[in-house]
Specification:
209 residues; alpha/beta; Rossmann fold; seven-stranded mixed beta sheet; two-stranded antiparallel sheet; globular
Length: 209
Amino acid sequence: MNLYKKVLNRFLSSSNTLARYSVKVRRNYRIKKFWDRDKQIVELGGGRYPINKENLNVDVLNHYTTDIVADMLQGLPFQDNTIDKITSVALLSNFSIKDLRKILIECRRVLKQGGELEINDVALNKVFDYYQVHGCDDKVLIAINGTQRDKYDIHLCVLDSTRLMQELHQAGFIEMKELTDPIKVGDRTQETQDGVNFSMRIRCQKNTT
């Protein structure tokens, strides 16, 4: 990160009045620009590091990179059938299975007919395969329990791709496919820890019926 970006990041992350106003103006501009686009793509839980700055970042974390601050368990802040695509990276494992189901149902509600949902998260089977060879080292503990750097980064429900697809089917999604190429977040690979990739990437569509 160059000096300009460091200074800007520090300023926008501060709590002074000018910084808060600047963040408000930025959010209003990005929301307007979002609805003016041909396709509306939302990232859930992008937090400080959204995967694509062109997408609308919805997160409970009140950071300047968050476009809409929202508690997803209280419902997504969109009307029915208004979003073309939803993505999430390392998000759903932070919720209990009960709350995960609520979020999937909310995703289906706001997606347009045939809209796309793409989930990137920890894959239990990959963690288990690594564990069988290397034992319970720090990489396994982080993958299963989260980094625990804050109250939001704690894993409560780590699934494998088969179980996640079952949950997606129950929530009303079809055309489920597991992608083999891991998603890139800047210059790093999602859920890669010291060269170990524990991630799964599932893409599906909202049922049109």
